Amino acid sequence: MNINYLIQTTAQSLETIIREFTPDKRYLPQKSVSNKGTVPAPLPKDVVNYLFGSMDISCPLISSINGDIVYTAISTNNNLYLIGPVRLGIKLEIKHNLIIDSDHSTFSESANMCDFNLFLKSILWFYNLLSGSPITENDLLVTNCISKSEKESMIYYSHLLFENRENEIRHNPYDQEFRMLSSIEHGDLRMLEQVQREAPTGEFGKLSSDADRNYRDISISAVTLISRAAIRGGLHPEIAFSMCDSYIMKIEQLKNLLELQPLVEGAKSTFAIMVNDLKQRNKKDKEMSNTHPLVKETKDYIFFHLHGKITLNEVAKQLHVRSNYLSDLFRKYEGISFTDFVLQEKLVLIKNLLTYSKYSYNDIAFYLGFSSQSHLGNFFKNSTGMTLKQYRNKFSSIDEYSV
User: Fold this and answer.
1) Three-state SS at 64
2) Which three-class secondary structure state does DSSP give residue 368?
3) In the beta sheet, which residues pair with residue 71?
4) In the chain, is it the N or the C terminus that has fewer CB atoms within a 10 Å radius of its CB?
5) Which stretches of 101-196 are assigned E, i.e. beta strand?
6) In percent, how much of the chain has pLDDT > 70?
7) Is 162 within 8 Å of 112 (Cβ atoms)?
8) b/e for 243-277, b at 16 or more Cβ within 10 A?
9) Are 386 and 380 within 8 A, CB to CB?
10) Phi, psi (5° rounding) for residue 139?
11) DSSP 8-state class, residue 268
12) HEC profile for the chain?
């Protein structure tokens, strides 16, 4: 590529200067070009260091000086280029802005007014021809400019921070939140109980100016964090996501805001109990790193197909192994037969559906691959000693059902 031609045409198009530097930011005047045909004067070292910033080669870095003139730094594998100064015809909120108190005529005297679209296209053209990874106009703007909404958010943040300090308002401590989430992740019911007894030393954040919406949003955020902690603790994501969705729907449905905190506290306990149960069931398992990959794939297949009828032959066929071999391997590592493991996981899901959903018994039977509601009921009664209705009436957190 004729880089000299690229530099000359870009400088002429933008009516500006393009300075070239070595990777260690040593100015190369003999390789630099001015639209006026003169050798560009060097810039102060501290200004050069600022304009190049801590950039990498992934995107040009646009900077402004005193919010007035604009420079663009471009890094390649071989050299650094500094394009500018220019003045843009529009007001652009640039993230990288250098304020100079002294006279900055050295930087601005050769800054011509430049059409914004021409500026963008020229910078993209220059960079993309030298880079092995082309970028788009959106990439350039998102990396370098502050959007209106982002700026408004930062203004609100500054205002809120000042207001909170004036009123001596502090958020609830992070270490308390960490202990709570850690207790759920580890299924540690005793630790969770201790954390729940702790008196809060701060206040909840403000997510909305509307009090009703604020309490609901805080509750939704809490339940979301709780469900993710349970996933980290080993709870299957699909189960955790479904439960989280159910709690969020309940949060939106509740008319009395005083019921939100007990609901969230109940969610903490429920998720922690489920993780605890899971860890108890897997207490004798070997560490995942020692688990045979075929067993892990088998369990993943089971989790994602719990809604249907699952057979050993079907899974063995999917994994391209003999069913007898898979059966023996599974029992060796899990300490339980393939069939019993499937029924065990279905039982967990049945309990969740009875507790957190409005699905009818027929729907649950169909969803989980049972031949009929009677088949489901018999299996559940033999496993728990309770009928479907008895279990739902005792543990349900949903008010009305279609059965």
Assistant:
1) strand
2) coil
3) 63
4) N
5) 112-114
6) 82
7) no
8) bbebbbebbeeeeeeeebeebbeebbebbbebbbe
9) yes
10) -60, -45
11) H
12) CCHHHHHHHHHHHHCCEEEEECCCCCECHHHCEECCCCCCCCCCHHHHHHHHCCCCCCCCEEEEECCCEEEEEEECCCCEEEEEEEEECCCCCECEEECCCCCCHHHHCCCEEECHHHHHHHHHHHHHHHCCCCCCHHHHHHHHECCHHHHHHHHHHHHHHHHHHHCCCCECCHHHHHHHHHHHHCCCHHHHHHHHHCCCCCECCCCCCCHHHHHHHHHHHHHHHHHHHHHHCCCCHHHHHHHHHHHHHHHHHCCCHHHHHHHHHHHHHHHHHHHHHHHHHCCCCCCHHHCCHHHHHHHHHHHHCCCCCCCHHHHHHHHCCCHHHHHHHHHHHHCCCHHHHHHHHHHHHHHHHHHHCCCCHHHHHHHCCCCCHHHHHHHHHHHHCCCHHHHHHHHCCCCCCCC
Return the residue matching tokens 């890094």: 75
Contact 352, 359 (CB under 8 A): no
Q: Which residues contact 199 (CB under 8 A, 6 or more apart)?
A: none
pLDDT greater than 90 at residue 387: yes
Structure tokens at 289: 């790193």
pTM score of the predicted model: 0.39
- Residue 261, pLDDT above cutoff 80: yes
Tokens of 208: 């909305």
The predicted structure's pLDDT at residue 318? 92
b/e burial code for range 70-91 (CB count within 10 A of at least 16 → b): bbbbbbeeeebbbbbbbbbeee
Both tokens of residue 130? 């030298």
Mean pLDDT of 247-273: 88
